[in-house]
Amino acid sequence: MKIREIAENDLADIIRLLIEGFPLRNPKYWKTGIDHLTRRPETKGFPRYGVTLEVNGQLQGVLLLLTSTIHGSIRSNLSSWYVREPFRNYATFMFKRVTRVPGTVYMNLSPSPAALPIAKAFGFKPYTGGVMMYDGRSAFKSDCAQSLSMTGKHLEAFDAETRNIIVNHLRMGQRFIQHIMSSFHQLPNFA
C-alpha cells in the first residue's frame, strides 16, 4: 500500500474512481474537471492533481488538490475524496499526506458528510468571506453582493494575483463573478 501523487498515466483510473465515488456526477463532469486541473498553473512543491491510494498496483482511492498562490499565501483546497470500502481505514493517511507542508492554508470548501468529521479532527474550521466565483446562472439578488460579467475594465480593478485567478476561471468557461463585500475585501469601484 502506498499513497503517492497522481500521475498523468493514472488519469483514466482516477476518473473511474471519481465516477464510482460520486455517482451523481456524470463521466463528462469528471473528465472536464481533470482537464481543468491539467491546464492549471502548477504550484511548486504540490501535486498537480492530488494523491491516490495504490494497493497491489491498483488505485483504490483519490483525493484531488487545487493549489494556488494567492496574495503571497499558498492555499490548497482538498476536493473529491473517495476511498473504496475495503481500504477506507487508510483515508486519514491520505489526508495527512496532503496537509503536511507548513505555512499552507488548507481548505475543504465542499466536504461530504463522511469527510467533515475527519476535517474537524485535523483542526479545520469554517471559512468564509472575500471573492466567490460561480456560474452566473445561479446569481441571486443581494444588497451585499454584485454579479458581474467580466470585461477588461472590471479585471483592471483587481490586484494582479486576484486578476490571475479570475482569468484562470474565465479560461475554464466561467463568465461571471460574484463579489461578496466584507470588511476584509472591499468591492472595487466599477463606475
Written overview of the protein:
With 191 residues, the protein is of the alpha+beta class. The protein has helices spanning 11-21, 27-39, 91-98, 116-121, 152-156, 160-171; strands at residues 2-5, 50-55, 58-70, 73-83, 105-107, 131-133, 145-149, 176-180. It contains 6 helices and 8 strands; from the N terminus they run βααβββαβαββααβ. It has a 5-stranded mixed sheet with strand order 1-2-3-4-5, with helices on both faces.
Bin the helical content.
25-40%
By secondary-structure content and strand pairing, the structural class works out as alpha+beta
Identify the strand order in the major beta sheet.
1-2-3-4-5
Q: What is the string of SSEs from the N terminus onward?
A: EHHEEEHEHEEHHE
In percent, how much strand structure appears in the residues?
25-35%
Number of helices: 6
Question: Averaged pLDDT, please?
Answer: 78
Q: Please report the distance between the alpha carbons of the first and last residues.
A: 57 Å
